[in-house]
Input
Amino acid sequence: RDMKVWERSHQLTLAVYKETRSFPRDELYGLTSQMRRAAVSVPANIAEGCCRGSDPDFARFLQIAMGSASELDYHLLLARDLQYLLPESHAAFLPSVSEVKRMLASLINRVQAG
Output
């Protein structure tokens, strides 16, 4: 929890949960669930990777977190295009998602460099 990337991704997850509360009820097991799962996966994989015994294991979990962040990026776009998410709300998420992805990329590079 002391890692900035974990904290930023946790805040992003909280924001996704808050925003998806207003999605249509028939999307509860569809897009709402997918967005929440992708968002939760980012800090969860960072946390799990930290507990692994080696840098290669940690890097693998960070890469999984990166994939989940990219998945969330798409889900946000889809939610906007389906008009579940206002364009302004979508635009507000973009800097946070980009920041988390940049931080993950940087951390992956540092861990892989050893």
Residues 20 and 43 are 18 Å apart (CA to CA). The chain has four helices and no strands. The two ends are 21 Å apart (CA to CA). The chain has a mean pLDDT of 96.
